Amino acid sequence: MKITVCGGIKFADKLVEIYRELERLGHQPQMHEKMFAIAKGEINEVPDGVEHADVKRKNNYIKFWHDLIVSGDAIVVCNFDKNGIKNYIGGNTLMEIGFAHVNDKKIFLLNPIPEEVSYADEIKAMVDFVLNGDLSKIK
Questions:
Q1: CB 80 within 8 A of CB 14
Q2: Contact residues for 128 (Cβ-Cβ < 8 A; gap 6+)
Q3: For the chain, what is the mean pLDDT?
Q4: Which residues touch 130 (CB under 8 Å, ≥6 apart)?
Q5: Segments of the chain assigned E as strands
Q6: Spatial distance between the Cα atoms of 83 and 101, rounded to a whole number of angstroms
Q7: At a CB cut-off of 8 Å and minimum separation 6, what does 102 contact?
Q8: Domain assignment of residue 64, given as a range
Q9: CATH code where residue 63 lies
Q10: How many distinct helices (H) and strands (E) make up the chain?
């Protein structure tokens, strides 16, 4: 299955691990190539003195992820603890879930739905399957 790996850039190293595990399981994972360089520490996610929104705009990241999601069969949302919220899903990742949903792509959540976010109901309405950390459950 062609699967787009989604999640916060803060977790680039974990996203690369998920990518590699999906490969090992026989899937065709997709992800922005810069995630690999960020995970290795070769580049910073946001260079000093630059606004994060400007980086997203300059690199056209939101459209890039939309197009990647549309070209695949499914997404796996890698939701980890962040800012004191268990299994956090941020704004960009929520949009990516929405892109997958409106384009009839399967949506797998690596960990349970975060209950501490105001948009938990929207996530529940779109997610197809919670993997509880087990990528081998993707069929």
A1: yes
A2: 106, 107, 108
A3: 93
A4: 108, 109, 111, 112, 113
A5: 2-7, 28-30, 74-78, 106-109, 129-130
A6: 26
A7: none
A8: 2-137
A9: 3.40.50
A10: 6, 5
Residue with tokens 């087990």: 134
Number of structural domains (the chain) is 1
Of the candidates 118, 96, 85, 9, the residue with the CA atom closest to the CA atom of residue 109 = 96
CA 121-128-100 angle, 5° bins: 85
| 102-123 tens-digit pLDDT | 999 999 999 999 999 999 999 9
Q: Which residue has the tokens 């960020």?
A: 38
Predicted TM-score (pTM) of this structure: 0.92
pLDDT at 13: 96
Question: What is the sign, positive or negative, of the torsion defined by CA atoms of 90, 113, 122, 20?
Answer: positive
DSSP secondary structure of 79-100: ---BTTBTT---HHHHHHHHHH
pLDDT in tens, 33-60: 989 998 998 887 666 666 878 877 887 8
First to last CA, the chain: 8
CA pair distance 106, 131, nearest whole angstrom: 12
As given in the structure block, the two tokens for residue 121 are: 């109901």
